[in-house]
Amino acid sequence: MVVKVGCCGWAVKGGMKKYFETFDLIELQSTFYKLPSVETAKRWREEAPQNFTYTMKAWQAITHPPTSPTWRKSGLKISSEAYEKYGFLKPTNENYEAWDKSIEIAKILKCSVLVIQLPPSFVKNNENIMNIKTFMNSVERPQSLEIGIEFRHESWDLETVKSLCEELNLIHIIDPFKQNLARTTSQIIYYRLHGLGQRAYVYDYSISELEQLYEKWVKPYEREKEVYVLFNNTNMAADALDFKKIIAT
After folding, report:
1. N or C: the chain end with fewer CB closer than 10 Å?
2. Closest CA to 96 of 39, 127, 143, 134
């Protein structure tokens, strides 16, 4: 199949044009905080090469309640009465509307994967498991768009994650240095690399670590799956370029 390498955001100096010349994959981060206009999304798609792959993070309204500090970047003001209706994949009209808006942008961009990044406070319990199932079984799922999910609380064991991903046809998204992959029938393996330092995201991967990434977690899949490798650390552009060199050798 193929290995695609990119960054979580436009991390290359020189803007979008330079990024398109450097990588063939991006995970849009801005869509998590605030969705772009339809016109902006159309321009991003038109300016990208035809074979360029977009993925994007789903709008935070679906996953994070308005009490989350990430909402400060949204520019939206939510009434206190509506606070309990957003986030955590709750099957509410507010979350369904937020999903529809995310899907609209994903369609325009011709995204291959929509990333659901769950907050660290989203623990494994019966309520959250039921919310995931109810929500994902109720929303629009375009045939051309895969849905990936990243669990970030340690309570989510591999057996539960595998069961959910298989039942709901979801890609299990992980940082392979920190989590184990729930192997499913999905044709896409999706890695997000967050760094290994004491401070979140502040990291520069060594060549030996990148070689380990390839040998342990990419090479075993590259002949039968599409493997997406997205760097999401402070040195992401340089690390992604180094990793592309390793793949090419």
Report:
1. C
2. 134
